[in-house]
UniProtKB/TrEMBL annotation:
<dbReference type="GO" id="GO:0004803">
    <property type="term" value="F:transposase activity"/>
</dbReference>
<protein>
    <recommendedName>
        <fullName>Mutator family transposase</fullName>
    </recommendedName>
</protein>
<dbReference type="GO" id="GO:0006313">
    <property type="term" value="P:DNA transposition"/>
</dbReference>
<dbReference type="Pfam" id="PF00872">
    <property type="entry name" value="Transposase_mut"/>
</dbReference>
<feature type="region of interest" description="Disordered">
    <location>
        <begin position="49"/>
        <end position="85"/>
    </location>
</feature>
<comment type="similarity">
    <text>Belongs to the transposase mutator family.</text>
</comment>
<keyword id="KW-0815">Transposition</keyword>
<keyword id="KW-0233">DNA recombination</keyword>
<keyword id="KW-0238">DNA-binding</keyword>
<keyword id="KW-0814">Transposable element</keyword>
<dbReference type="GO" id="GO:0003677">
    <property type="term" value="F:DNA binding"/>
</dbReference>
<dbReference type="InterPro" id="IPR001207">
    <property type="entry name" value="Transposase_mutator"/>
</dbReference>
<comment type="function">
    <text>Required for the transposition of the insertion element.</text>
</comment>
């Protein structure tokens, strides 16, 4: 739509400064109000079937019945508009629906601020400072609670039948326990899949009191119930019983200990001045050409550091059965598994969103924020780097399962 120069000249007559145009009593705000009222009037005309300056037929009982003042909250602050009424109350406006109090994507702004980690109090202060809007804590909660419906649909959606790689991890988040009313470190379980096209996809998130193999089994059953038939490689931390929980649901899945987790755990045992050298020597283990060379590198590491740091080599030996599958894969697949960039970047996004909150009053409050962080994470790009080479290797290693 093009507005003629004559109309613009008439509208801008008397406008002398920015405040006259954009201020609280300025032209833009008044124009928005008048246009909305005009459109609402047109809707009522369509509903009643006669023009405002005309008379309805004698057979028609429903007629215009004045207006109701309503204040809408939007980017321009509070907008007071007069909504036309009919006598029998059957008029349902589309432009401003009954019960609607917000326009201009205000809900999206509230959800965006919540996703950035702002508390309800911070969101209210921001809206008042920037837009001059006073909103209640209840309104903010109702807007963000709408996210839970989206979470439910997302959490129960159907999944792909086969995922070449699934990363499984748990983070700690402070949440107030509903029974004891004490703030506790709860486990947030996250499953991140890589599908056959090399696209990252967060398969779900779950919250429990503690991380344990028993709960991971329920997670694996959830994935199976949502359509997952096969996982080629599951990359996990060193939790005891984790491989058994995975293989109970997916017997053919190769369980691989996350090398990054294992290295970090090892570095916790050594002093700061030795960390760089220890990490360098550990790299010789997981960059070995095969498991025999890796075992020799582990023995060399133990000979070098075993007396000073006696706990590191045994921790690798305890996890060895979940480390050695790694060496059966070619470099293209190994790189994706051991660097775990995907799950690491996801965890960073979640931690960044949760750290500003300190603690959450409920599991639902934590779920809302973590889901919004995940949604933001998936918008940044889902493709795994150098996937073509890895896909070709999967097709060779698992011809029947990968090419289903």
């Amino acid at each position: 739509m093009t507005i003629s120069k004559e109309v613009l000249d008439e509208l801008l007559f008397g406008v002398e400064n920015a405040d006259d145009l954009l201020g609280d009593q300025g032209l833009m705000k008044e124009l928005k109000v008048k246009l909305m009222e005009r459109m609402l009037g047109a809707e009522l005309t369509e509903h009643l079937g006669y023009e405002p300056d005309a008379e309805p037929s004698n057979q028609q009982n429903n007629r215009r019945n004045g207006t109701t003042r309503k204040t809408l909250k939007g980017n321009d602050g509070a907008l007071p508009i007069d909504v036309p009424r009919d006598r029998d109350g059957s008029f349902e406006p589309e432009l401003v629906k009954k019960g609607q109090t917000r326009i201009d994507g205000m809900d999206d702004k509230i959800i965006g601020l919540y996703a950035a980690g702002l508390s309800t109090r911070d969101i209210r202060a921001h809206l008042e400072e920037v837009y001059g809007l006073k909103v209640s804590a209840d309104l903010v909660s109702r807007v963000t609670d709408a996210v839970l419906e989206e979470v439910s649909d997302w959490q129960n959606r159907a999944l792909e039948p086969m995922y070449p790689i699934v990363f499984l991890d748990a983070l700690r988040v402070k949440i107030r326990d509903a029974e004891s009313r004490q703030v506790k470190n709860k486990a947030v379980y996250v499953a991140l899949g890589v599908n056959a096209e090399g696209e990252r996809e967060v398969l779900g998130l779950w919250i429990a009191a503690n991380e344990g193999a028993k709960f991971w089994l329920s997670v694996m059953n959830n994935l199976r119930n949502r359509g997952v038939e096969d996982i080629l490689i599951a990359v996990v931390d060193g939790l005891k019983g984790f491989p058994d929980a995975i293989n109970a649901a997916f017997p053919d899945t190769t369980v691989q200990t996350c090398i990054v987790h294992l290295v970090r755990h090892s570095l916790n045992f050594c002093g700061w001045k030795d960390r760089k050298m220890v990490a360098k020597d550990l790299k010789r283990i997981y960059q070995a050409t095969d498991d025999n060379e890796a075992e020799k590198a582990l023995a060399d590491f133990e000979a070098e550091w075993g007396q000073k740091y006696p706990s590191i080599a045994p921790s690798w030996r305890r996890a060895w059965q979940e480390v050695i599958p790694f060496f059966a894969f070619p470099p293209a697949v190994r790189k994706i598994i051991y660097t775990t960039n995907a799950i690491e970047s996801l965890n960073r996004v979640i931690r960044k969103a949760t750290k500003t909150r300190g603690s959450f009053p409920t599991d639902d409050a934590a779920t809302k924020l973590i889901y919004l962080a995940i949604r933001s994470f998936e918008k940044t790009g889902r493709a795994v780097r150098e996937w073509v080479a890895a896909r070709n290797q999967f097709a060779i290693l698992y011809p029947e399962r990968f090419n289903k």
